[in-house]
Amino acid sequence: MITLKDALSRSLSMLTHHPFLFSRLSRWLVGVLCAIAFLCGTLPAEAAPIGAKYTKQYAPPPSYSNAELKNQDFSGQNLRVAEFSNANLNGANFTNADLTGAVLSASTMVETNLQGADLTQSMMDQVRMTRTNLQDAVLVNAILLRTNFDHPEIAGADFTEAILDGAQIRQLCKVAAGTNTKTGISTRESLGCSS
């Protein structure tokens, strides 16, 4: 049986008897060591963000889908691209909240307060709104198809480029009034209401 010590001594004696093999092996080893030293010297100290900094910067958006959020207070919060699809938002307070790009599809909003909220590019399709306060809300480019508006408060709301069907526009034009304080656009103008 050959021991590790015997194998190493045979290999070493072979290298000393064959100088050509020893010189090639030593050049290869020096090259590998230089490459490792070069790579270690050029790598940044922090190769990838980790920990709390990474989690905070790349945190997934909050998801409240299918949640029971009756009377919850979200006023003034940053809820960009948050998910509220199929949620019960009855009586919830979103006053001045940033809901840019949020998904509120198929949610229920009875007496929900969205006054001054930014709902730019939000998806609000198939939402059931009853006495919902949309005063001074920004709904620019929002998708509102098949949303039911039952006695909405929309004074000062900006619906510029929002996706609504003709029946919704006619319904909202009956109560449209005021000008949005953030965008300076009148509610009637944003809906394309006839004079």
How is the topology of this model organized?
Blueprint: H1 4-17, H2 19-42, H3 51-57, E1 108-110, E2 128-130, E3 148-150, H4 166-173, H5 187-191
Parallel strand pairs: 1-2, 2-3
* Strand line-up of the largest beta sheet: 1-2-3
Percent helix among the residues?
25-40%
Q: Give a count of the beta strands, DSSP E runs of length 2 or more.
A: 3
**Low-pLDDT residue intervals, each spanning 5 or more residues:** none
Mean pLDDT: 85
> What Rg, in angstroms, do the CA atoms define?
33 Å
Quick one: CATH superfamily of the largest domain?
E3 ubiquitin-protein ligase SopA
Count up the helices.
Answer: 5
Share of residues in strands: under 5%
Number of domains as seen in the coordinates: 2
CATH topology (level 3) name of the largest domain:
Pectate Lyase C-like
> Class of the largest domain in CATH?
Mainly Beta
Largest sheet: 3 strands, parallel
Coarse shape: elongated
Assembly state: single chain
Terminal CA distance = 103 Å
What does this structure look like?
Helices cover 30% and strands 5% of the residues. It folds into 2 domains: 8-38, no CATH class; 63-195, E3 ubiquitin-protein ligase SopA (Pectate Lyase C-like, 3 Solenoid), CATH 2.160.20. The protein contains 5 helices and 3 strands; from the N terminus they run H-H-H-E-E-E-H-H. A 3-stranded parallel β-sheet has the order 1-2-3. The chain has helices at residues 4-17, 19-42, 51-57, 166-173, 187-191; strands at residues 108-110, 128-130, 148-150. The N and C termini lie far apart (103 Å). The chain has 195 residues and is mostly helical.
